[in-house]
Amino acid sequence: MDIILFGIQGSGKGTQGKLLAERYHLHVFDMGSQLRSIIESGTELGNKIKTIVEGGHLVDDDTVVEIAESFLRGISPDQSVLFDGIPRTQTQSEKLEALLKKYQRDVFALLIELSQETAIKRLTERRICPTCKAIYPGFYKQDVCADDQTPLVIRQDDSDLESVKQRLSHYENETKPVIQHFYDIDRLIKVDGEQIIPDVTEEMIEKAAYLFT
Q: What is the pLDDT of residues 199-211, one digit of tens each?
């Protein structure tokens, strides 16, 4: 069983996804990490994606699905996957579901629910370690990464409020209909993301348990 993890930016789905993957031994496909790796490669595609991301826009659907298929070809059919950051649009969802069907993989969706107001607050207050890419919420009081002591910075796409609002607008207009689709076909688990982090984790692991038992 594969899981598609949904959550508005700032919902903590990256952190929660890693915990869920550890608990149920899932192989994580993180579209954000995949794209950052391509950007850091310095290739023509990497430079193109960098311009798109820094402008607060989303990478085109065909490129995103192509990256996902390359990932699936490299893992065992028996290895369950947690997809984070895909699908973001209805087109992506249709293409990803077709791709999973092609590889004979079953999928369920899990949504970490969070209000837009809370999302904006979290995004504009969080910082990132430029070395290991760990994300630290606003309540983290240190100025350096807990793992490698690198000074924390604000991500460029989090520093501009209009850019943040534009990303959230993409989620509202393009990703929410995808989530509704999984709800309509009875393939959606909802988790309250307004809780403190440990409570979100507990609820998420508890609700996902029946998928792997």
A: 999 999 999 998 9
Angle between helices 61-73 and 31-40 (to 10 degrees): 100
Residue range 109-145, pLDDT digits in tens: 999 999 999 999 888 888 899 998 888 888 888 889 9
Rg of the chain (C-alpha set):
17
Backbone torsions φ then ψ of 6, nearest 5 degrees: -110, 150
CATH topology of domain 2-115+174-212: Rossmann fold (3.40.50)
Segments making up each domain of the chain, as ranges:
2-115+174-212
CA 159 to CA 51: how far, in whole Å?
16
Task: Give per-residue pLDDT as tens, 91-109.
Answer: 999 999 999 999 999 999 9
Gap between the Cα atoms of 60 and 58, Å rounded: 6
Q: Is 19 exposed, middle or buried (0-12, 13-18, 19+ CB in 10 A)?
A: middle
